[in-house]
Amino acid sequence: MPSHTPESRRNFVKKVSFLGGALGLGSLQSHAAGGPPTQSDYYITKATDSIRVTGIRRVRVELPGPPSPRTWNATKFYGGSTPSAKWFELETDAGIIGRSFYKGPWSLIEGEVYNKLKGQNIMNPEHIWHRLYHHKRKPVAKGEYIMAIGSIDIAIWDIIGKALNLPTYKVLGAFRDRIPVYGAGGYYAEGKTVSDLVKEMEGLVEEGFRVIKMKVGGAPLQEDVERVRAVRQAVGEEIEIMIDANNAFRSYEAITLGRALEPYRPYWFEEPVIPDDYEGSAVVRKALDIPIVSGENEYTKWGVRDMIAAGAIDILNVDTIRGGGYTEYRKLAAYADAHHIPVAPHGHSMMAQHLMASLPNGLIMEVYPKSTFWSNPVFPPPEVKDGHIIIPDHPGIGLEPDWDLVKKYEVPA
């Protein structure tokens, strides 16, 4: 990406004045047009408040190498495939490209959702979100359609940031530029011993994390207790340990495990029961002193409203895409804040970091460490220092792949 020095920002201010909400547009050579960005900086072409999407394309990169190890949590298996990356790009009449990872069927994004977006003025993100959710469909609060909206919404905010020549979190309303993060790991694997787990968790601390997360619920209770005890003994009292059950338990089972683990001071107990069992989560929350976190499988502000009404959570960890993207997530975060509940966005840090930097009740954010199989050289994880990351000071959300790898290993989408 081009560098953006204080001098270039001063030049930006000189080149355009904002009258009546008018926005300055930049122009940028797109990967879709034949290669990565090569300009020295964005430049102002005109003052306008209108940008229209003209195209959408998916990008897929398949890297060589051995398949990732087969691992699992309490409810799902992972691994067994070679490293890869996939995302999509929105093309605009301003020459600006918006990028996002996506969840759900690609056919839904490039079909029904894109058809409702095409030709609309995306500088009106609230109007766009409302149109995508309500226009010519029977609204539902959950499902693949919300993930499609969330994916598109993040790409739109990438474009808006680039149009303003600002990091997206500053467009959303900056609260901070340094975010506390935790390292996610501690999966089960064939032949993985408690000693192996301890080494993994110690590796996360060496990477700079002060909060680490491990799985529970995929082994007998006493084995999980021993795993947590060994990690606590190894990392000491200054490092926080999260436990994540991935919806493994009935409420009474979660209470039994939670009480056995309370001496080791878990930072939180994530998703102890199935996602829709708000009442069961509330029972666990009432019985334990460990904070209960849930929401990564919930959708939109209406789902969050129901979780909070049931007394099911202490901390909310809605996924940035499943939640409906930045436009919707800021509403559900504000609702949580009104009930004194902090948020901790689940999922890929590149999708969540600009959102997190704009939220006053943002608690902590998930990061996939370099040492885990989630790490991908196409989009390397952020540098962690003393348990924090610094938000990239690039226009938009900063979703920039390693273009050399893209050129070498891109495959037909």
What does this molecule look like?
The structure is a single chain. The protein contains 13 helices and 17 strands. The protein folds into two domains: 171 residues, 2-Layer Sandwich (Enolase-like, domain 1); 219 residues, Enolase-like C-terminal domain (TIM Barrel, Alpha-Beta Barrel). Strand 12, helix 9 and strand 13 form a beta-alpha-beta unit. The protein has 413 residues and is of the alpha/beta class.
Keywords:
single chain, 413 residues, alpha/beta, Enolase-like, domain 1, TIM Barrel, 2 domains, 8-stranded mixed sheet, 35% helix, disordered N terminus
Radius of gyration: 22 Å
Query: Percent of residues in beta strands?
Result: 15-25%
Structural class: alpha/beta
Report the average pLDDT across residues.
89
Summarize the biggest pleated sheet. Answer: 8 strands, mixed
Number of E-state strands: 17
> Which CATH first-tier class of the largest domain would you pick?
Alpha Beta
Please name the CATH topology of the largest domain.
Answer: TIM Barrel
How far apart are the termini? Answer: 24 Å
Annotated CATH architecture of the largest domain: Alpha-Beta Barrel
Count of folded domains: 2
Please estimate the helix content: 25-40%
Shape: globular
Full CATH superfamily name of the largest domain: Enolase-like C-terminal domain
